[in-house]
Design goal:
Deoxyribonuclease I, Chain A, 3-stranded antiparallel beta sheet, DNA repair, 133 residues, metal ion binding, magnesium, DNA-(apurinic or apyrimidinic site) endonuclease activity
Length: 133
C-alpha cells in the first residue's frame, strides 16, 4: 500500500527540521577577522534556523567574509556606506522559498516574505538605534 502524498511531504519536513529556532544578535561590528570567526563559531554551535545580526558594518562586497557552516543563505541590506547593516542567515536544513525581500537604504531593516513549512511567513530583522535629542 502506497503512502498518501501529503504524508510523504510531512515525513520529509519532519526529518529535515521539525521546529524553527531564531536567534538575534547585535554584533557591534564584524570588521575584525578574529571577531567574525568567533561569531561564526558561536552561531554554528547554536544551529539556528534563522539568525539575525545587527550592526555588522560590512559592505556588500564583504558578504563573502561572513560564512557560517550550515547556513545556506545570507541576505544583507544594500547600503552605500559602512553603517549599521543588518544580515539574515538561513539554515540549509530548512526548506524555504523566498517570495519577496524588502530592504531600506540606511541598512536598518530587512523584511522577508517567504514560504516555510508550507506556510506564508513574514520575517523582519530591524536595527533601531536610540537617538539622543
Amino acid at each position: 500500500m502506497e503512502m498518501p502524498s501529503y504524508q510523504k511531504v510531512k515525513d520529509k519536513m519532519t526529518t529535515r527540521r521539525p521546529h524553527i529556532s531564531i536567534i538575534t544578535l547585535n554584533v557591534n561590528r564584524l570588521k575584525s577577522p578574529r571577531k567574525r570567526h568567533r561569531v561564526a563559531e558561536w552561531i554554528e554551535k547554536q544551529n539556528p534556523t534563522i539568525c539575525c545580526l545587527q550592526e555588522t558594518h560590512l559592505s556588500s562586497k564583504d558578504k563573502y567574509r561572513l560564512k557560517v557552516k550550515g547556513q545556506k543563505m545570507i541576505i544583507q541590506t544594500n547600503c552605500t556606506q559602512r553603517k549599521a547593516r543588518v544580515v539574515v542567515l538561513i539554515s540549509d536544513e530548512i526548506d524555504i522559498k523566498i517570495k519577496k525581500v524588502k530592504k531600506d537604504t540606511e541598512g536598518h531593516f530587512i523584511m522577508i516574505k517567504e514560504i516555510m513549512h508550507h506556510e506564508d511567513v513574514t520575517f523582519i530583522n530591524i536595527y533601531a538605534p536610540i537617538r539622543e535629542p
